[in-house]
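Dear Dr. H.,

I hope your travels went smoothly. While you were away I took the liberty of generating a structure for the chain from your last submission, since the lab meeting agenda had it listed for discussion. I wanted you to have the full record in hand beforehand rather than looking at slides cold. The sequence, exactly as received, is reproduced here:
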Amino acid sequence: MRSQLRIRLATPEDARAIGNLVRRGTRRDVLPDQSAAAGAYLLTTMAARADRERMREGYRYHVAEIDGSVVGVVAMRDDRHLYRLFVAARFQRRGIARALWRRALADCRKRAETRIFTVNASARAVPAYLRMGFVATGRAEVKGPGVVTTPMVYRLD
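The corresponding predicted structure, in token form, is as follows:
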């Protein structure tokens, strides 16, 4: 029997699983291109309590589940900024990131009629965002405490 992918709105009870998934993905795919200080800062933003607080502040999180386990997450800020998009390594290249993005996109369009979306992509994520239709709006830049990202935009025509 093949496992079914389920995407649903996350709850504060999902914060621990989200944090674990995001920290693993960050260590593997983001930190190699960051300074030690930037990496340490990023990891502090991924605690379960931080995600619960962001949910209370209005960030919208959706999770992808397979057999009841969280295997992916997308988070949106202000119905227009893609804050997080991670899929567990063993479930990558199965369309889960694209499915999460489509769910978040539809949610934002329904809630706020958003037509322009932004993301600050890590170096290793840029190709995936390009495949999903984002375009870079500039070169990689340093933000906040030394975090290097590439600003990107997605426009609905």
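Two observations you may find useful: The two ends are 40 Å apart (CA to CA). The first helix runs from residue 15 to 29.

With kind regards,
E. W.
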